[in-house]
Amino acid sequence: MSKILRNSFFSILFFLGFIWLHTFIRLNSYIDNDGMNVYLGKAVIAVLGTLFYYWCFTGILDSLDSLTDTNYRKSATFCDIVCVITIALLIIEITTGVVSIISEQEIRVFAITLSKRYIFDIFAALFFPVVVEMALKSIVKEKMSLRTTIWGIIPILLLSLLGFLFFLAMRNIWLIDLVVINISTVVVGTMKYIFPLQKIKKGNVVGCLILYALLNVLFLSFLAYDGTSFTEFMYGTEWPEYCEGARYIINHASLSGTSSTLLSSAYIHDWLINRNNYILQLLFYGGWIAVAGFILFMAVFLILLFRLLGLKNFRIHRYQLVYTASFTILSVRVIMGTLYSLTLLPYPISLPFGGTNSIITDSIVFGLILYGAWENYKYERLLTYTLVRASAFLNEEPAYHLWVKDENYEEEGVLERVLVKDSTDGVFCDVEWIYADDREFAVFIPVDNPNHQVFLLEQINKADWASVDEQEISEFVMKAFVSCRIPACMEVEDEKHEED
């Protein structure tokens, strides 16, 4: 089995483990719950829906990607459209009161409302990375001129500001989370598109990244908060109350199993009601061994997801920023959520799939990573074809014939499945036609092909095809075959960015 498929399979098992733990806590620690199967249903539907709708959305992304083949005026047009839409929405919100986009924690259009919690991960993992990728690609393709660089940077800054304004009404931690994810996305995009340029001054690029980070910190400085301490800015005024309950559990938890002290504490029973914190709940029910096992569980889960990113295809994977941003989101959930659970950092964020909303939004992010893994699998499977002689599937003969729908093959067209026949039998194949030096070749992929093999034939007259014995020709045709069948999600033609 392919490593990508194996890692995908195990990551899905870990995903189901998270959902089981979420369900266990809901059934045992929440006053109201939706039943045993509802949470699994929500998560699975979110993943499957993401795979389908993102597959549809990639067609739109391909259309948007065409913007990067033009000049800076398209970036300016994008900025103008976004500004006009934003101003129009603000005017409607201020003057009518029936629409709310910025001032509330929900999007409200008349009586219809949608929590921004559901939109946060989609914005951070999908919309922002797509705009960053489009902008950086346009900068590179237009040779890093000053004018195009400025117009390429403006959409990134504009969307960063709009994202900040859009989530401004939410708690400070959401804005801090957004800043962390956005900065990492811009850094990864710069590493993919800008750093490989041969004549670029990397010191200047690093300086621009630092300025972008400082600009995001400046955004955060405008956030309102009660009090002056760091913990109140990050968490609010209830941090001491949280620490009191959490540290009581931490200090009295047993090595294994439920501590008698915690079990007999009415205060802790009341404190844990309706709390989705995996680590504190596990300390109560299973002790430190259960928590250590769970932290290891999360670490292995992140390792599996990191492998699914397929970083050896980092330079050519068209939507890599979407998948790395998704990985960043889940990594922040794990790292910061663990520190928060242990009262080491006032970063109030749920562990993966732990919250009422995040069981859906984190499932969406997980679905995006699985989709990226599938794209890597399609590409790497293409690279693993083994060229063999036609005699591996047919009798060794000087010539073979091609048939389509039981008719003698005459000329290839849009149909790419043929029957290759010898004197006694035949094999159905998918075929790729290759032309070189006024010669016509065909690479055949047998339908029943467990060993992932292909064979090569050359047309010697109108009706006959023969095996190719020339090593150089075989290598050339196989390279052309791979190039013709490369998935659209891989940008092999852009693998090397060079300046004139």
List the helices and strands and how they pair.
Blueprint: H1 3-29, H2 38-65, H3 72-96, E1 99-100, E2 106-109, E3 112-115, H4 117-141, H5 146-166, H6 172-193, H7 202-221, H8 230-234, H9 239-252, H10 260-263, H11 266-272, H12 278-285, H13 287-308, H14 320-341, H15 358-383, E4 386-388, E5 401-404, E6 407-408, E7 417-421, E8 426-436, E9 439-446, E10 453-459, E11 465-467, H16 471-485
Parallel strand pairs: 4-10
Antiparallel strand pairs: 1-2, 2-3, 5-6, 5-7, 7-8, 8-9, 9-10, 10-11
Number of domains: 2
Helices and strands, in N-to-C order?
A: HHHEEEHHHHHHHHHHHHEEEEEEEEH
Portion of residues in helices? 55-70%
**Beta-strand share of residues:** 5-15%
User: Total number of β-strand segments?
Assistant: 11
Stretches where pLDDT is under 50 for at least 5 consecutive residues are 406-415, 494-500
Quote the distance from N terminus to C terminus.
Answer: 44 Å
Please state the overall shape, judged from the principal axes of the Cα atoms. globular
Could you say which structural class the secondary elements and strand pairing correspond to? alpha+beta
- Number of continuous helical runs: 16
Characterize the biggest β-sheet. 8 strands, mixed
In angstroms, what is the radius of gyration? 28 Å
Provide mean pLDDT, rounded.
85
Explain what this protein looks like in three dimensions.
This protein is an alpha+beta fold and 500 residues long. The protein folds into two domains: 3-382, no CATH class; 386-494, no CATH class. It is 58% helix and 11% strand. It contains 16 helices and eleven strands. The protein has helices spanning 3-29, 38-65, 72-96, 117-141, 146-166, 172-193, 202-221, 230-234, 239-252, 260-263, 266-272, 278-285, 287-308, 320-341, 358-383, 471-485; strands at residues 99-100, 106-109, 112-115, 386-388, 401-404, 407-408, 417-421, 426-436, 439-446, 453-459, 465-467. Helix 6 (172-193) packs antiparallel against helix 7 (202-221) and helix 12 packs antiparallel against helix 13 (287-308). The protein is globular, with a radius of gyration of 28 Å. Residues 406-415 and 494-500 have low confidence and may be disordered.
